[in-house]
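In the current project phase, we have settled on a layout for protein records. A sample record is reproduced below.
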Amino acid sequence: MIDKFDLVMWTRNGAKTLPFVLKRISEVIPDECVNNRVVVDDQSNDKTVEIAESYGWNVVLNEGTGISDGANTALKHVNSEYFISFEQDLLLSSDWWEKIPSYLENPNVAAASGMRFADKPAGIRKLQQYVARKYRGEAELASWLRTRKPAAFTLGKTLDNTIYRTQVIKAIGGFPKMNVNAGVDAVLAYKIEQANYNWVVDYAVQSVHLRQGLKQELRHQYWYATQLYDIWKGIQSVTNRPPPITKNGILFRFCVSPFTGLFIALKTTESTRAFIHPLVRFYYVKGLLEASKFTTKSGTL
């Protein structure tokens, strides 16, 4: 087992969830294994800073704005051979510590994470769990599906419960520098692959993504989709190849989502997925079309 780790987090107005998040981290990760705890705050105007300091975290200001700059600001304060990143709305799984760090004992592994699923509504959480199992290729869920390896490459590779090999992350230039707050993790996953390292995801370790309900999830889907062109551009800059998911692919999935939602509901005996799945797809497409209008006007599509 690795001896010492640095813990980092980037925050912005996270006072509602931060006490639960920090308390859980202190319960799961032994204090004697922690070197530094650093919160990079992005001009919060609530009690985020005070809460972080009350739990023993050192607070520094984001040298820029957003997640990309926050992650790279945090990286400058990492002094240990390994570090762990969290986000302000992630309730860490109780078995995370005993399972995830050991993956970095393999010298070919540069990062390791567990999965995370929304706490509410239940329909969203169960839909996310179904999608994760499907993309892992569990045949009893959808044996008629072709291989999902390209589309599933970034599944679970998030920044909110991840341990890294510091030297590797610094050697590849740190976290991707992006103009949007979404997709930093996806582009980082490709950068790690291009450097011939692995990012391991343990699907059995399941943390909780603290959410406010269906409306928040739909807003999140819309917001994420508005960032897609920047994310795709970031992936292409790293890989020199098109991303595995395209605009036409997203539109097709929306068109068939009523049938897919019904199939999932019947397959998993969860009736709410029959309408939640197409509703999520609708907001995703809505965000993508909004982004398309902007990029068309700016001539970058």
The CA atoms of residues 95 and 205 lie 7 Å apart. Residues 216-301 form one domain. The radius of gyration is 19 Å.
